[in-house]
């Protein structure tokens, strides 16, 4: 990518939070939008079958964020029985660079978690690269803990943390009606060193 394109791709866009429209997965026309965002921003390559698996079986758990008709973020999830627990799983979460740090990912993921909770999930899990400070901070604020470290989990050789949110989470409840940014919501932090990770299984 040349420097000009790179600048355009990262330059912040001015917008009010109310201008962002959140919609749940609405059919095949949303699939290329999701795929394009995820392919751009996540290190793991996914086939169209993987995307279809998620959005066909759990359309109610996938959301897209639009600004003036442009798709700027998405979350893709599933849920089901895992051993003796009914659990939700966040597979993909992406917000394009010019729209980051304005709460869009928090809103997307909170919407999915709310549906999971209403559907009877007892917990939510996901994996994040141990180097992904932004994602670890975001999930930490929502009350996720680091349940496991998975060595060389990704194709690029990077380790993952398995993150887990056990319901009920007061942080999540307090963040559901609106996105909060108060002191209290920063209690679960981003900076827990790996040695403090707890193995839950
Ligand atoms: C991780 C990612 C999804 C976060 O998206 P985001 O929309 O920037 O996330 P949020 O805005 O909800 O939260 C991030 C930050 O915005 C801040 N924020 C939240 N709401 C805000 C608001 N209304 N105004 C200003 N800042 C806000 C948060 O406090 C947080 O602050 P920090 O950057 O100091 O940690 C995004 O960086 C991304 O797509 N990364 C690449 C893909 C990826 O890593 N996905 C996760 C895989 S596990």
Automatic annotation (TrEMBL):
<dbReference type="GO" id="GO:0004596">
    <property type="term" value="F:protein-N-terminal amino-acid acetyltransferase activity"/>
</dbReference>
<dbReference type="InterPro" id="IPR000182">
    <property type="entry name" value="GNAT_dom"/>
</dbReference>
<feature type="domain" description="N-acetyltransferase">
    <location>
        <begin position="18"/>
        <end position="168"/>
    </location>
</feature>
<dbReference type="Pfam" id="PF00583">
    <property type="entry name" value="Acetyltransf_1"/>
</dbReference>
<protein>
    <submittedName>
        <fullName>N-alpha-acetyltransferase MAK3</fullName>
    </submittedName>
</protein>
<keyword id="KW-0808">Transferase</keyword>
<dbReference type="InterPro" id="IPR016181">
    <property type="entry name" value="Acyl_CoA_acyltransferase"/>
</dbReference>
<dbReference type="InterPro" id="IPR044542">
    <property type="entry name" value="NAA30-like"/>
</dbReference>
<comment type="similarity">
    <text>Belongs to the acetyltransferase family. MAK3 subfamily.</text>
</comment>
<dbReference type="GO" id="GO:0031417">
    <property type="term" value="C:NatC complex"/>
</dbReference>
<keyword id="KW-0012">Acyltransferase</keyword>
């Amino acid at each position: 990518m040349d420097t000009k394109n790179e600048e355009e791709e990262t330059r912040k866009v001015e917008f009010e939070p109310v201008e962002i429209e959140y919609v749940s997965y609405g059919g095949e026309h949303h699939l290329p939008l999701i795929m394009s965002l995820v392919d751009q921003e996540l290190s793991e390559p996914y086939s169209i079958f993987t995307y279809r698996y998620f959005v066909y079986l759990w359309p109610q758990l996938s959301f897209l964020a639009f600004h003036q008709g442009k798709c700027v973020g998405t979350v893709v999830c599933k849920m089901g029985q895992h051993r003796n627990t009914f659990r939700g799983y966040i597979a993909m979460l992406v917000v394009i660079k010019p729209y980051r740090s304005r709460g869009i990912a928090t809103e997307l993921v909170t919407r999915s978690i709310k549906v999971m909770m209403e559907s009877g999930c007892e917990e939510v899990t996901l994996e994040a690269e141990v180097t992904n400070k932004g994602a670890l901070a975001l999930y930490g604020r929502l009350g996720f803990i680091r349940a496991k470290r998975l060595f060389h989990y990704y194709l690029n050789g990077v380790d993952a943390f398995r993150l887990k949110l056990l319901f009920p989470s007061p942080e999540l409840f307090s963040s559901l009606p609106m996105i909060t940014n108060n002191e209290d919501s920063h209690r679960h932090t981003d900076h827990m060193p790996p040695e403090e990770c707890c193995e839950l299984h």
